[in-house]
Structure formats: C-alpha cells, structure tokens
Design brief:
Shape: elongated
Number of domains: 2
Helix content: 40-55%
Strand content: 5-15%
Oligomer: single chain
CATH class of the largest domain: Mainly Alpha
Largest sheet: 3 strands, antiparallel
Radius of gyration: 28 Å
CATH architecture of the largest domain: Orthogonal Bundle
Number of strands: 3
Distance between the termini: 57 Å
Strand order of the largest sheet: 1-2-3
CATH superfamily of the largest domain: Intergrase catalytic core
Length: 302
C-alpha cells in the first residue's frame, strides 16, 4: 500500500538520498526521499493525491477514485437500524389513534389532526423539521407517462436540499379529511401558505418542533398503557413503545418499505438519503415508477 511505502521507501538505494544529503535535482544521486515520511507528511500526501484523483474523476479521465474506496474499507460499518416499530407495535399505535374520542368539535379536530400527522410522518418518512417548516401549498399534482394524475409533496430537507415525495392516495384522503374538519377545501391550492399542521382552534400558524414531538409521544404513551392492560407479557412491548419518538416513525417507514420489497433506490429517494452506498450515485429510478411502487406497497391501512 502506498502509505506503507511512504513510511519506509524501499528499495532505499532507488528512492532515498544517500546519508540524507541534499543534492540538485539534476544530480545523478538525487532521490525523491530524504528518509521515511512523518505521519503528518503521509496524511498531507494522501490529501493531495485524493484531490488529484477526484479531479480526474470529475474531468472524466477516471471512472472512480481508488483512495475513496480505500477510506471506505477503513470505516466502521453503519449500525443496523433498531429504533423502529415492528408491525405488531405499529398496529397497536394505530388502534390507539382509532380509540381517540371525537364527540365534540375540539375532539374531532384533535383526532383528525393526529391521523393526518401520523400519516404524514409514516407515509412520507419525513423528519420533524420537514413537517413544521413546510406548507400545504407544497403539494402539487402532475400527470405521469400513462396520463394518470399523481400528487407529490415538495420537501426542503437536510442540508437545504429539495426533493419530491410521493403523496399517495391514502395520504391525500387523510389530508382532505383534515382540511374538511377545518372548514377548508379538500385539496390545497398552489403556493397556499397554510402550515401542514395547525394548532387546535383554527389559528393558521405552524406548530413548533417540540409540540409535534409531544403530540407523537402522547400517542406512544397511551399505546403503552393499552399494551400493559393486555397482560404481563406486554411489559417489554410497552417499554419499547415508551422509548419511541417521532423520529422512530421515519425509521419505521424506511424499515417497512424495505421489508415489503420496495426498490431500495425508491426508499433512498423517498427519505432523502444521500446514497445507499458510494456507487448508488450511478443508480437512477423514474419518479413515476417510484410513485407507483410506493402507492402499491407502502400503506398505512387505517
């Protein structure tokens, strides 16, 4: 390996100046090394070479950067995602929401907002920041190659990167129910400034991140109480639900999509991940195909 060579350039008579003495570059005794490089000099040499290889890749002279592959081999593998809800716990969460009271107008508004919130977080796999900073005018409809109208949600994600997420029929049904409960038209208008989630009472201002976290956490806590009431065997399941947070819904969405054999490229694009691996930048999938597969295989099934 080149770094090992820099630590001890061999054969020395070819690469190292005799006795470390300096001579002119044109001299017959000139060699590129005066001796082994220090750790800091080795790092600097690798940085320079990496920049050169990256430029050659960008310029089209090379297909890939060998030094980037070397760095990847030295990285620890990413830990497996464990902060998600298994199918049975996810069903319990949905049952908890279905049990919510809706006798009064305030209770109905709270119920439909909760259904909409969980649908949004699960079906779109959104981060909390992507929910509270977005507006209903970010929904748009366009025809696919087969002439079918499909809804999408434009999301400003991590690193100020825009992506579009399939707004499935289930999601749009929940949105229209929520909007009707608020006395609004079922579907938003382009550039409508209404926040995706509103406080109870009709005030048109966005909820804070902490408010959304608390609303989700309250549902998980009620779910844990229901599970405990089913018997002592539910203690461990209840404890797991108590540990869950709003971000678990994003992991749950990704895990469920992968388990149902949604193309991993579509999962990547739906969640706004940078890549699956370093080679995933070479993979591209049709937006329409991604919408169809998300529609078919990723459902909330209230």
């Amino acid at each position: 390996m080149y770094q090992h060579f820099l630590k001890d350039p061999q054969p020395a008579q070819r690469w190292v100046l005799p006795n470390g003495r300096k001579v002119a570059r044109a001299h017959i005794d000139w060699r590129p090394f005066a001796g082994p490089l220090s750790p800091s000099s080795i790092r600097q040499a690798v940085v320079i070479l990496n920049a050169m290889f990256s430029w050659l890749v960008t310029a089209g002279y090379l297909a890939g950067n060998p030094l980037s592959l070397s760095r990847q081999r030295n990285r620890r593998s990413q830990p497996r995602i464990t902060r998600y809800l298994e199918d049975d716990l996810w069903q319990e969460v949905k049952l908890t929401i279905d049990r919510m009271p809706r006798e009064t107008g305030r209770e109905r508004e709270h119920y439909f907002r909760t259904r909409w919130m969980f649908s949004l977080l699960y079906l779109c796999g959104l981060r909390i920041s992507e929910v509270v900073c977005n507006q209903m005018g970010s929904f748009f409809c366009r025809r696919d190659n087969e002439g079918e109208e499909r809804w999408w949600l434009e999301v400003l994600g991590k690193g100020d990167k825009l992506r579009i997420v399939p707004a499935t029929n289930e999601l749009m049904v929940e949105l229209s129910r929520y909007r009707r409960e608020l006395g609004m038209a079922p579907f938003p208008l382009p550039h409508e400034a209404t926040p995706l989630l509103l406080p109870i009472g009709g005030k048109h201002r966005e909820l804070t991140r902490s408010a959304v976290h608390e609303l989700v956490k309250a549902v998980f806590e009620k779910t844990a109480v229901w599970i405990k009431q089913q018997g002592p065997e539910g203690e461990s399941k209840a404890e797991r639900v108590m540990q869950a947070s709003a971000h678990w819904l994003r992991h749950t969405a990704g895990s469920h999509m992968a388990n149902k054999a949604v193309d991993l490229r579509h999962v990547r694009d739906n969640l706004g991940h940078e890549s699956l691996t370093t080679t995933s930048g070479y993979l591209h999938s049709s937006d329409d195909e991604r919408h169809r597969e998300t529609e078919e295989k990723h459902k909330i099934d209230w």
